[in-house]
Input
Amino acid sequence: MADDSVTAHKGIAYANHDGVELAGDLYLPKGRTAVPALVAVHGGGWVQGVRTAFQYWGPFLAARGIAMFSISYRLAAKGKTYPQAVHDVLAGVQFLRGKAAEFQIDPARIGLMGASAGAHLAALAALGWSSGKFSKAYPQDTFAAVDAGAKCLIGVYGVYDAVAMWTSYQLQGGHENNFEKFMGASPMESRQLYFDASPISYATFANNKISVLLAAGTADDLVDPKEQTYPFQLALKQAGFFVRPCIVAGAPHYWINDPIDEPGSYSGFLAPRLLRFLAEKL
Output
């Protein structure tokens, strides 16, 4: 059922990188001005996934006064897309900030949200932007000169330690190592490459003005929170970040796409906690 308090603009082209047109779906609160916004990054193991993963979250948040721009990015189905996928995410932030007046968005209140591989990319974009490692890659972008900084980060069952994720794929066996495919090399070929691709590497005092919400399920058998979420949370705390955990009892991987209002849904458990965090920190 359509919500008459929400305006949806599907398939907005926000950048063209190396001949690939990147698009996003924008959900706006109807009739409001200077609203906060999230750029949302879908999961899919770096090799698949679609921006419609946030088809429930976009209308849900927009109906409550928070815009969402759910974006696509280049996937590693045919070869490495690191750091290109991070560049795509940053371009999404720059586009939204550059168009803030047109979309009635407050340019000072833009955050990043991602799930799984999308949380990895969102965290790299949010925390790695100020390092300069991911900046100025596409000077031809319309909004290349616009700041891509984020006010907050929401990571849902995310990957924050690159070597730990590579190792997890190796141990699970039986399928291709998606993370190595995304990176284009193994850790043994370049430890520095994996350090730079780990959001935990940017958990520093210099970045601690960014507020963080980390959600993870206790029964996640693909991205173990004990190897990813909990160490990242500790590193952020050590560096003085405001970081709030949302630990979802019994939740596995792959639930951010579920309907929020479904009885007993894990998304439904996250929703009020996310709204509280955004009201305080975005």
